[in-house]
Amino acid sequence: MKRIVFLSGGIGSWAAGMRVMQKYGNGDIINLFTDTKKKNDRHPHRGEDQDLYRFLNESWSYIGGGLEWISVGKHIWQVFEEARYMGNTRHDPCSRILKREAARSWLEKRFSPDEVILYLGIDWTEEHRARKCMDYWKPYRVEFPLIDEPYLSKEDMCVWVEKYGIRRPRLYDMGFSHNNCGGFCVKGGQGHFFNLLNQMPERYAYHEAKQEELFLVIGKRVPFIRRTIDKQINYLSLKEFREEIQKKK
Ligand code: SF4
């Protein structure tokens, strides 16, 4: 039985992998990382944060087994342009194509459902996501080692990895709750984008420019960041959101 640990480069999936290793040993582990850009793409703002690759390279060997590094060879804005669709909180073609379908295709070419168990880093605070994942991965079996006691907070997991002399992913120290897509996520809310604008204005500017290009491809501006002011809901683009924040300064 192979044990496939879905390593995202975040602290949760690393801790999940460590629990698998502690319980079963690492002889059957394969760590699977799906990159959100071409492997040799050095653009500073495309794909994952550069520090994620540092963290992944330094930390995966403590889980042991092998590391499979796969990539569709595209980044999120290429996915949106091809789909002529801006990803958002409800629909994430980026994650579907670059992560879920890429991983599924890799898996189906190599293993039948009775040969593997999949391990995801969803923790006890996110149990609602676990059911969705189990449905998605059927007929493969999925387990969530972090849902089990003893419960670990993100800080506990960061302290754990630091015991090995490995610095936690820098995005956590910058106020991001996830180490995904370099701190830009189409599923983020206004607080997330406010943090990105403050912490990494150049990265924000890159995504703002890509979104403006996408609107030209689609032929219209589409709603993106949800804002509620005086009980009124409105939706802003990255550009409009930035301009609104800067006006208030
Ligand atoms: S982290 Fe967000 S932007 Fe990146 S692939 Fe996942 S859903 Fe898309």
TrEMBL record:
Full protein name: Phosphoadenosine phosphosulphate reductase domain-containing protein
Organism: Paenibacillus auburnensis
SUPFAM superfamilies noted in UniProt: Adenine nucleotide alpha hydrolases-like
Xref: InterPro entries: Rossmann-like_a/b/a_fold
